[in-house]
Amino acid sequence: MSVEVVVKVVSTIASQVADLDDPLATDDTTNGDPYRVLISCVLSQRTKEEVTSVASKRLFARASTPEEMIGLSIEEIGALIYPVGFWRTKARHVRDLSIRIRTDHNGRVPSTIEDLLSLPGVGRKTANLVLSSGFGLPAICVDTHVHRIMNRLGFVETSSPNETESALRRTLPRSLWLDINYLLVLFGRNVCTPLSPKCSRCVVREYCHQVGVLRFR
Asked: How far apart are CA 129 and CA 138, in angstroms?
């Protein structure tokens, strides 16, 4: 699939998801604040969006800055974020990264991927989402939806989200970097699902190679 075709595909997907229900569209948990985006992303790992949203709101009601977070114990943070997945480990990461932000970055979330990756509990997906959603910088956030759909379409042939990110950085126009995650996540939840995708209602099925699709609706 050429770059020109994938640009058309993404544009067509955008028109379809505009009419889809997004239960988190009005969620103002992070308010675009880099620190809140960072903490919410850490909490979201292996956790449903709805659970993450509730836990983040509960935590931010008590502490929404690194200084305020450091004022809480790991046990207090854990109680506030429960029942997110691996909540004990995440509580420790939240406090430790808040300390690192204060001591190593003058209390401000760093705006480079290298510095973000040096923080406890932060991987490439989280770092890229902080750059894009927190700072408005061009970054490609690749989660399971983006990885699956880009491979299913035939635009990339990769075996991991990190490989997909590298491939997209080389080929995807920078004008699409900020929007690609939101569009494909919403598309992946509603149409291009992991199992039995709804190909009959997909607006880009004529372009899709259906890689790995064994059964569809």
From this structure: 10
**Phi and psi at residue 214, to the nearest 5°:** -100, -30
- How would CATH label the architecture of 34-135? Orthogonal Bundle (1.10)
Structural tokens at position 71: 């004022």
pTM of the model: 0.86
Residue 59: C-alpha distances to residues 32, 52, 68, 90 (Å): 16, 10, 11, 12
Please, which residues have CB within 8 angstroms of residue 180's CB and are 6 or more apart in sequence?
Answer: 10, 140, 141, 146, 168, 172
Residue 105, burial from CB neighbour count under 10 angstroms (0-12, 13-18, 19+)? middle
Domain regions of the chain by residue span = 3-20+140-201, 34-135
Q: What 3-state DSSP class applies to 171?
A: helix
pLDDT tens, position by position, 119-157: 999 999 999 999 999 999 999 999 999 999 999 999 999
- Assigned token pair, 51: 């659970």
* pLDDT (tens digit per residue) in 2-40: 889 999 999 999 998 887 766 544 455 778 899 999 999
